[in-house]
Design goal:
OB fold (Dihydrolipoamide Acetyltransferase, E2P); eight-stranded mixed β-sheet
């Protein structure tokens, strides 16, 4: 008999059908001649109640079931006389698939996020984390659907690379050399003896590779894991996270900003429509303002604000900031949130940043002081997208690389593309986990990724 998902049963319009479900016991209670078992299979937030009759052959074993046990239930789907549930299953057979021991740590009470991070292998069975990871799945699907509907091609960029896209040097090295006794030449490690014949690292971005594909396929995107060896323990940072990175040929900064807004609004609207039950959980228990915030993000026109005007607004703000606001310095999260939550009360796109605080590949503006960069800022999160028009002019790019201390020989292929049919092109990176934080109201990035990787933590 084919297994039916509980999500399907809870939305059923007909009763008295024979069904098979398999899942995990959430709670169980006994009554005279019956045992009532709440079962969840992860397909939705709701549980379904199973009525176990004393006439079942293994009834005494069923009365020993505790939360966390896995069972299979065959029976009739019937209308429930109980409040808060439309259906229940009158069991004709219950198979105990996997017992749970008394040490099962998820009890019928609310656990702290800090505790649940210590049992990340079990936390998806809670209401909150089951909802998070269902939304994560739906958001992934929505991203692919959005790009496909817009004519983009999905590409796969390298995870192991010799390039440092951001130029910050915060990279995880990949090597087959003996770290205790590496080969040396002239007193330093001989990387020529390594697997790739040179230093290799985990990627911080697929952007540079995506640019190459955009020069052939037009509009492309990559969506995958990236890695940054940034020794940070903030609520916004993990060492391994996912990025959505579109790259568009024949697209300037204006086009880039418009597309970024369209994507954020599409994804927000999609999740509000397709994940209503799970979103409502977060609106009730995590952030009471979540629905109104997401409505503003999905429906309002985003403010477009030059960097210097943003700095001026912050300098005249009727409050002080922990971090200094000054022209030529990057905006901090508190600055970004002030702009979106207090001053404008809606998302803001800041553009035309000083060239001194941005990477070499961003297109130099005519003032020779700023670059065609943009960041999309949203309430509660701050920066959720960072992007730019790329420098398509060979001589300008070469000079920028020189000014930024980037070795030309390491990027010969990147320069080469500017010699053969170079065109204006733009792109950006969307932090997938930050998008999930925005959609759920969750304030710590460790709680929107199944197994977070942070300094001194590589469990599971």
């Amino acid at each position: 008999m084919k297994r039916t998902k509980i999500a399907e049963l809870l939305n059923s319009t007909s009763s008295d059908e024979r069904v098979l479900i398999q899942g995990w016991v959430r709670t169980r209670r006994d009554s005279k001649g019956f045992s009532f078992i709440e079962v969840n299979d992860g397909s939705c937030l709701g549980n379904i109640q199973v009525i176990a009759d004393a006439a079942l052959d293994n009834y005494e074993d069923l009365r020993k079931l505790i939360a966390g046990s896995a069972i299979g239930v065959t029976g009739e789907l019937v209308a429930s006389p109980g409040k808060g549930q439309a259906w229940e299953i009158r069991a004709s057979r219950i198979d105990i698939i996997g017992d749970a021991s008394e040490s099962y740590p998820l009890q019928k009470k609310r656990h702290t996020d800090e505790f649940l991070r210590t049992i990340a292998h079990l936390r998806p069975r809670t209401n909150k984390y089951g909802a998070v990871f269902r939304i994560r799945s739906e958001l992934s699907f929505a991203i692919h659907r959005f790009f496909r509907d817009h004519g983009f091609r999905y590409i796969h960029t390298p995870i192991i690379t010799g390039s440092d896209c951001e130029g910050a040097g915060e990279l995880f090295r990949v090597t087959t050399l003996d770290v205790n006794d590496p080969p040396k030449r002239a007193g330093t490690v001989d990387w020529g003896a390594d697997f790739f014949g040179k230093e290799a690292n985990l990627t911080v971005s697929g952007q540079l590779s995506a640019e190459m594909l955009a020069m052939a396929l037009g509009d492309v995107y990559t969506f995958g894991p990236t890695f940054r060896a940034e020794n940070s323990n903030t609520r916004r940072h993990v060492a391994e996270f996912w990025m959505v990175e579109p790259e568009m040929a024949f697209c300037d900064l204006e086009c880039n900003m418009a597309f970024a807004q369209e994507m954020i609004q599409y994804l927000t609207t999609y999740i509000l429509q397709e994940c209503q039950e799970d979103i409502q959980l977060f609106a009730r228990f995590v952030d009471k303002t979540l629905i109104s915030t997401l409505s503003v993000i999905s429906q309002s026109e985003y403010v477009r604000l030059p960097y210097e005007e943003a700095v001026d607004i912050l300098n005249h703000a009727p409050r002080s900031f922990e971090f200094e606001v000054a022209s030529g310095k990057d905006l901090q999260s508190e600055h970004e949130r002030y702009l979106t939550e207090v001053h404008f009360k809606k998302p803001v796109i800041v553009f035309d940043y000083p060239k001194t605080i941005k990477p070499f590949y961003m297109r130099l503006n005519d003032d020779d002081k700023t670059v065609a960069a943009m960041d999309v800022l949203v309430p509660r999160i701050g920066e959720i997208i960072g992007g730019s028009q790329r420098e398509e002019r060979l001589h300008v790019l070469e000079q920028r690389m020189k000014d930024c201390g980037v070795t030309r020989e390491d990027y010969w292929w990147y320069l080469d593309m500017r010699r053969f049919g170079s065109v204006p092109h733009s792109g950006f990176g969307l932090g997938f986990e930050r998008m999930l934080m925005m959609l759920t109201g969750i304030s710590n990035i460790r709680d929107v990724i199944p197994f977070p990787r942070t300094p001194n933590s590589i469990e599971f």
